[in-house]
C-alpha cells in the first residue's frame, strides 16, 4: 500500500453514517427462516418423525406426517430492541392473522392441522396479553368461557388487520368497537374458537445464534448417534442449509424430493456436493442410490417438498 493510499483511509471514517440497509436486513431474515426450517428438517431422520417438509406453501413451511397430520408454521424474527410481541403486533407484523387465514384454507382439506408460531421474541406478559393467550391455547383442558373471550379479542384484531392486509379464507367485515360486541355465534368467532387449541407458540434462537445452536444441539448429536465424527456436524448443517435455501427459492409447485434413507443412513439430496469426509462414509448401496438421485435431477424442478434429514421433537 502506497503512502497516498494510507492517507486516504481515514477519509472513510469521516463519511456520514449510512442509512439502514433494508436489503441486508431482508437477507438476514431470509437466512433466519431457512435456519428454522433446517432445524425441523432434522426430524426426518427420526423413525416416527415427519415424512416431508414443504417450503413456502400457504405459510413459511409445512410439516407432513404419515398419519395425515399437517403442521402449518409461521416464522417471525424480531429485533432485540423491539421487545416482546403485544397482541396487536402479534396479529399484524407477527403474522398471526395470516397464519389463521391459511389455517382455515388448509383445514378445509379435512386433515388435522396444527398451527405453529415460531419466533425469537418473547410474548408480552400481563392480563389480556400475548403470554396469557399462549396459556389459553396450550391448556390441556381449555376453559370454554375463557376461550370464547379470547376468540372475540382475536377475531376483532384479525378484522382490523384485514383492513390493510390481504386475506382470502377468513370471513371479513368491519371490526367492532369492542370485542364483546361480537356475537358468540359469529362465524369468525367460532372459527377462532376452533383455531386456538390448534395454535402453539414455539421460541427459537435469535438469528445471530440459531445456526450455532442447531449444530451443537442437533447436528453434532446426530453424528455421534450414528457413529460419525461429531466435527461433521458443521458440514452436515451447511449441506442441509444449502438444500433448504435452494428449495425456498424454487418457483412452481415446489414439491422436490430431496433425500432417501438407505440401510439406516441418509443419502444427501440431488445437486448437493458432499463434504469429503461425509462422502467417504457412503459405501456400496449408498453410491448406487446417489447415482440414481443424480439421474432424477432433471425431474426435480417442481414443488418444494424438503424430505430432508429429521429434528428431535420440535425445540
Description:
This protein has 315 residues and is of the alpha/beta class. It has 2 domains: 24-75 and 206-315, no CATH class; 78-201, no CATH class. It has 11 helices and 8 strands. The strands form 2 sheets. It has a 6-stranded mixed beta sheet, sandwiched between helices. A two-stranded antiparallel ribbon has the order 6-7. α6 packs across α7 and α8 crosses α9. The N and C termini lie far apart (51 Å).
Write the layout of secondary structure elements.
Blueprint: H1 3-13, H2 22-41, E1 52-57, E2 59-64, E3 70-76, H3 87-91, H4 96-107, E4 113-119, H5 130-138, H6 144-162, H7 187-195, E5 199-203, H8 210-225, H9 233-248, E6 260-262, E7 265-267, H10 276-279, H11 285-295, E8 305-306
Parallel strand pairs: 3-4, 4-5
Antiparallel strand pairs: 1-2, 1-8, 2-3, 6-7
Helix pairs in contact: 2-8, 2-9, 6-7, 8-9
Describe this protein with a few key phrases.
alpha/beta; 315 residues; two-stranded antiparallel sheet; globular; 42% helix
Helix/strand-derived class?
alpha/beta
Q: Which segments are poorly predicted (pLDDT under 50) over 5 or more consecutive residues?
A: 255-279, 282-312
Q: Which percent bin holds the helix content?
A: 40-55%
Main beta-sheet annotation: 6 strands, mixed
Give the strand tally: 8
Question: Averaged pLDDT, please?
Answer: 80
Order of helices and strands: HHEEEHHEHHHEHHEEHHE
* Beta strand %: 5-15%
Radius of gyration: 23 Å
Distance between the termini: 51 Å
Oligomerization state: single chain
Strand order of the largest sheet: 5-4-3-2-1-8
Number of domains: 2
Shape: globular
User: What is the tally of helical segments?
Assistant: 11
Amino acid at each position: 500500500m502506497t503512502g497516498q493510499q494510507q492517507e486516504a483511509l481515514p477519509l472513510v471514517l469521516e463519511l456520514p453514517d449510512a442509512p439502514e440497509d433494508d436489503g441486508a436486513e431482508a437477507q438476514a431474515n431470509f437466512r433466519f427462516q431457512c435456519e428454522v426450517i433446517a432445524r425441523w428438517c432434522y426430524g426426518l431422520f427420526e423413525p416416527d418423525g415427519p415424512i416431508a417438509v414443504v417450503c413456502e406453501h400457504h405459510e413459511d413451511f409445512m410439516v407432513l406426517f404419515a398419519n395425515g397430520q399437517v403442521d402449518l408454521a409461521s416464522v417471525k424474527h424480531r429485533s432485540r430492541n423491539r421487545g416482546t410481541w403485544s397482541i396487536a403486533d402479534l396479529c399484524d407484523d407477527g403474522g398471526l392473522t395470516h397464519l389463521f387465514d391459511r389455517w382455515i384454507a388448509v383445514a378445509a382439506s379435512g386433515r388435522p392441522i396444527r398451527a405453529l408460531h415460531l419466533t425469537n421474541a418473547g410474548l408480552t406478559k400481563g392480563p389480556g396479553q400475548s403470554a396469557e393467550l399462549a396459556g389459553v391455547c396450550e391448556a390441556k383442558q381449555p376453559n370454554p368461557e375463557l376461550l370464547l373471550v379470547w376468540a372475540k379479542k382475536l377475531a376483532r384484531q384479525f378484522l382490523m388487520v384485514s383492513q390493510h392486509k390481504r386475506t382470502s379464507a377468513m370471513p371479513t367485515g368491519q371490526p367492532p368497537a369492542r370485542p364483546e360486541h361480537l356475537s358468540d355465534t359469529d362465524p369468525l368467532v367460532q372459527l377462532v374458537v376452533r383455531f386456538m387449541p390448534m395454535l402453539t407458540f414455539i421460541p427459537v434462537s435469535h438469528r445471530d445464534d440459531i445456526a450455532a445452536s442447531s449444530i451443537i444441539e442437533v447436528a453434532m448429536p446426530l453424528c455421534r448417534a450414528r457413529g460419525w465424527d461429531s466435527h461433521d456436524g458443521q458440514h452436515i448443517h451447511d449441506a442441509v442449509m444449502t438444500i433448504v435455501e435452494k428449495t425456498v427459492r424454487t418457483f412452481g409447485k415446489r414439491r422436490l424430493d430431496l433425500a432417501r434413507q438407505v440401510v439406516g443412513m441418509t443419502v444427501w439430496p440431488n445437486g448437493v456436493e458432499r463434504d469429503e469426509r461425509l462422502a467417504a462414509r457412503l459405501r456400496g448401496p449408498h453410491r448406487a442410490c446417489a447415482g440414481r438421485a443424480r439421474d432424477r435431477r432433471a425431474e426435480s424442478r417442481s414443488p418444494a417438498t424438503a424430505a430432508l434429514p429429521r429434528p428431535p421433537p420440535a425445540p
